[in-house]
Structures
1.
Amino acid sequence: MTKTPLFIFLLISFHTGVAQGINSIINQKEVARIEKTLSADDMEGRKAFTKGIDKASAFISAEFKKAGLLRWKNASGYLQPFTVLKIKPVSASGDIDGQPIDEKSIAVFSALSELTISNTGGYEKMYISAGDVFVDKAYKYLGAQKNTIVFVDTSFSKIFARFKGHVEQQFKTPRSVVFILTEMNPKEYKIQYKQEIVSSKFTNNVVGMLPGKSRKDEYVIFSAHYDHLGIGAPNEQKDSIYNGANDDASGVTAVIMLSKYFSKIKNNERTILFVAFTAEEVGGYGSQFFTKNIDPAKVMAMFNIEMIGTESKWGTNSVYMSGYEKTDMGKILEKNLARTQFKIHPDPYPEMQLFYRSDNATLARSGVPAHSISTSKMDAEKYYHTLDDEIETLDLKNMTEIIKAIGLSSKSIIAGKDTPTRVKEE
Ligand SMILES: [Zn+2]
C-alpha cells in the first residue's frame, strides 16, 4: 500500500486554515490514549449489561466533561439510561370480523403484561401490504410514537414468524405496537394478549451536546457504539477478552476526538450531538432508544463511525460510506475535502446491507441522512469479532488522519451552509 508522502500533508495544512488547528487538537498521541483506554483488558470487552461497559461509559462521560460538552435535554448527566425487558409471551387470541385469529399471527411489542386491543379505540391502524418492503415498514411502525396496530399481508408469513421472535426482547416504553398477519382489511377486531416480564436490565447511551450558535434546533450527530462482545470461553493461548479495539473503540475514539475539536473551534452554527451507543452488538437497542427520543425532522445529518482502525481496501486516507447513493451527503463531504488527498468511496460491499446493519439504520429509516463511515474490509478483515481485535493491530496514524478528515468533511453542514437530502421512505 502506498503511504501518502509527507509533503502532501504539509500542503493540506498550508491551504486550509482550519487544518492547522485540527492537527494540534486531533493528534495521534491523544488518539492512542483514548483508544488504549477503551480497548484495555479492564473494560472486559465492554459487553452490554456488564460492569466492564459501565467503566467504558464512565470514561466516555469524563472525556465529554473535559471537552466541555453540555448535557442534552436537561439530563442529570451525559448518560441516557433505559431498560431492556426480557419477555415471555403467555397467550394471544382474538377475532377479526368475526373470525378467530391464530396465536402465531399476533406479534406484540409492549412493556405491559396485559393488553386488549379493539377497533373501538386507542390504536392507530396501519398496513403492510403485498409488495411492500416488510423490514422497512415493520421497523418504521415499531418506532411509532403512538399505540399502533399493523395489519400484515399473509404474503409475509415466513418473515413474520422470525420478526415475531425478534420483537419479544423489548424496551420499556409507554406505547405498544401490535402486528397481525391477516388476509383481511378488518373493520371489527378484538385482540387479547398476555405476557410475563422475565427480567429487566438497565443500560445507557452516552450523549454530549455542543449547542449551535444560531440553528440550535438543527442537529448534526457524530456517533459510534461503545459496546462489544465481552469475555469468551477460557483460552490457553491468550486472554479471552474481546477487546474490540477496532469494533468499535476506534469509532468512539473518533467521536471523543471530534467533540474536543469542535468544542475548541466553537464555530458550529448547528447543534452537534456526540453519541456513544450501547447494545449495538446485541440488537441495536441503544440507537433504537435514542431514535425514539429525538425528532428525526431536526436531525440534518448523522456520521456514524464504525471501525476505522485499519486501512480500507483502497489503502490509507480513504473510507467508505454506507448508503452513499441514498442521499447527497457523500458529495457534500467530498466537496469539503476537495483540497485534500482524502477519498470517500461508496460502500464496496452492497450485498452485505451495511446501511441497515449499524446504528445509523433507525434514524435512516425515519428519513435522516444517516450514514456509517468505515474502513473495515468486510470480506477480509482478519480480526473482526475475534480475540485478536487489539490495539496493536490498528494503524493509529491513519486513524488520526481519518478522524481529522471526518471533521473537515462536515464543515459546511456544521456551518448550516449545506443540508444533505433526506433518505426516501420506501
Ligand atoms: Zn461495530
2.
Amino acid sequence: MNSPVNATPAAGRQHVFPPPMDRHYPVEGGRIRTRSLEAHIVDHCNLTCAECCSLSPLLPAWSASPEAIAADLRMAVKVLQPRVFKLVGGEPLLHPQLVDVIHAVRDSGIAPVISLTTNGLKLGDMADAFWQAIDALTISRYPRPRLAPDLIAHIEAQAARHAVRLNWKAQNEFSTMTRTAPSTDMAETQRIYRDCWIRERCHLIRDGMFYTCTRPAHFHTLYQGRQDFQSDGLRLRDDPAMLDDMLAYLNREAPLKACLECHGGSAPQAPHRIMKRVEVVALQRHYEEQAAPERILETEVSSA
Ligand code: SF4
Ligand code: SF4
C-alpha cells in the first residue's frame, strides 16, 4: 500500500549535514528497530558522478535478482524492523525486473515504507505498475544534467496520481569519501569510524550479508574479491543467536576494513561533477593496480 502524498516543491529542500547521530537500537517484539535498511539492486548507472558513494562508475554492470533479495529479507525480517526499506544503486530504475524486486520487498514485510533513490532521469519511462508499487521516491537533483521542467511536471503528476511521496534532494556537493590508497593510520581510522553517521543510516543487505554501511560490499566488487570486504559484514542466518549477534555487530567498536579506504560520512565536500570516460578508465586502472596481489602484500606488510 502506498503512503500519503506529500509532494515537496520541485525547488529542493534543505538537508542537515552532517546528520545527527542516531546510534540507538531498541529491541521491540524480538526485532531491532532501526532507521532504515537498503539494498543496492544495480551497480551500474546512467551517470558518472565523481565521488559516487556507491563507486558505481567504477563497477561492472550488475543486477540483484528478486529471488536473492527475497532470500536475504526472509532472514533479515526475523531480527530487524527498519522504518523504511530503500532501493538504491547505481541507478535502480535500470533494473530489468524492478517491479518484481519491489513486490519481493513488500511480501517480506520488512518495513512499512518502500522508497527508491534515483537521479530521476528515467522516471518519464516508468510504467504505471512501477508507480503503483512504490511508496516514496528520493530524487537527487544535480547541477548537471538538470531534469527538464516537463519531466519534473510528469513526476509530480504521477506521484500525485499514485500517492507516491516525493523527496526532492538538491545534491550540489558530494562528500569526498573514497581514498586513493588505504590508510595505515589505525588511530585516525578508529576515530573516523566512531564519528561516522553513515554506519547507522545506511545499513545494507547483499548476497546473504548484512553490513552496517554500504561501502564494504562495493569495495569488495571494486577489488574484484581479491581483498575480502565481506568479512566486514554479518552473515544473515535463521537461528536463535542471530538477534544477539546483530546487536553486537551494530554496536561494535572496531572499525571495518572498509574504513581504511574511506574518509567517512563527514569528509570534506566538493562540487558535484560528472567524470569523463577517460577519467573513469584511469580510476578503474588505478584500483586494478591496488587490487594486484603484490600490492596487497605490500600493504599488509606495511600495516603489520
Ligand atoms: S547518479 Fe548516483 S549512483 Fe549514479 S553515479 Fe551519480 S551518485 Fe552514483
Ligand atoms: S567504511 Fe567506515 S568510515 Fe566509511 S562510511 Fe562505512 S563506517 Fe563510515
